[in-house]
Amino acid sequence: MLVREQLTMSDYRDKDPLIHGIQSKIRVVPNFPKPGIMFQDITTLLLDPKAFKDTIDLFVERYKGKNISVVAGIEARGFIFGPPIALEIGAKFVPLRKPKKLPGKVISEEYVLEYGKDCLEMHVGAVEPGERALVVDDLIATGGTLCAAMQLLERVGAEVVECACVIELPDLKGRERLNGKPLYVLVESH
Amino acid sequence: MFAGDQNGLQGDPRLKAISEAIRVVPHFPKPGIMFQDITTLLLDHKAFKDTVDIFVDRYRDMGISVVAGVEARGFMFGPSIALAIGAKFVPLRKPRKLPGEVISEAYVLEYGMDCLEMHVGAVQPGERTLVIDDLVATGGTLSAAIRLLERAGAQVVECACVVGLREVKGQHGLNGKPLYILVEPRQQINCSAPPVNGVETCRHDDLILGGNFGSPVNTTSKSD
Fold this sequence. Notes:
Chain A is built from 5 helices and 9 strands. With 190 residues, chain A is an alpha/beta fold.
């Protein structure tokens, strides 16, 4: 069982300058990919080795020693954060991809976009029943993609322990779409 | 050059394990292509860690400040290497994925063209750079990556791939830049190794190069 630790005030004090440093490295690009969207660009975070390392270390600190054997990352920015976490905590990394990218047998999960639908795929056999899994992406907005990711893992009998993102857009209420699964984020953007 | 040709890595059992952890999927994405699937390597924590460690051991003292990874499988290897050697990670992406100002480099595919983009300002003139991808086939994508970095004034020290042919065929040739590869692609599918996920794989010992599936250029395929 994942022990839900209460962060103590000293934890907040220790982590706060790291979080502040990470947040300061995220670039906001207005009107991308379309007018009205303030895009949270994590590539500038990746250009700062210390801030990028702090990001990974915060996740590793939370998940190491919790018997998590799977880190599933959502294409494509989940592929940047997921593997370093997986390597540090001793888990395998499972890419969740757009259709027709993964060779061989896959299972697919459709999900709804603002206009239209999209689909996420996972390899058959990548994850065994009963495995404890983490889902990683750079950002949670409406939660649609994360929800599809969780569905894929649960369909093969894995237990999704938590979803982990660098950034949350709380106004879009994505947290409520996670079927009660916990969400851990480093930075909130309103 | 191949990792296994180097002093210290000859006969390194890690390389054999890495090769065997890579799954060969026949006729993907189209008939005749023996797809080298590195996702099975990512499922093997030790082999994945060894892959990253071998690259890190090579590059940590080369004064490299940039690791550029080609979308999307370059993203699975590049960041871990960057973090370990204290370099920044720069994603090289398909068109219209990167927000803000980008530079673009077009390159030729077997049928048609594609394009790779990099953020303006991600890389400074004079920075020593590594380019990383999972696999090199014709070298077209890597050549485009090199051109992007050089246009920004960076110095490409080497290109690194997990899988690649001993000779990069085709007209690209990586602009004279060195190429470092861990393992060769495997082709043979009829062998005694147990199937993985219902797909037969093969053992490193059974490798036959340039064999039954047409010219070597066609036996591996670079997709994203």
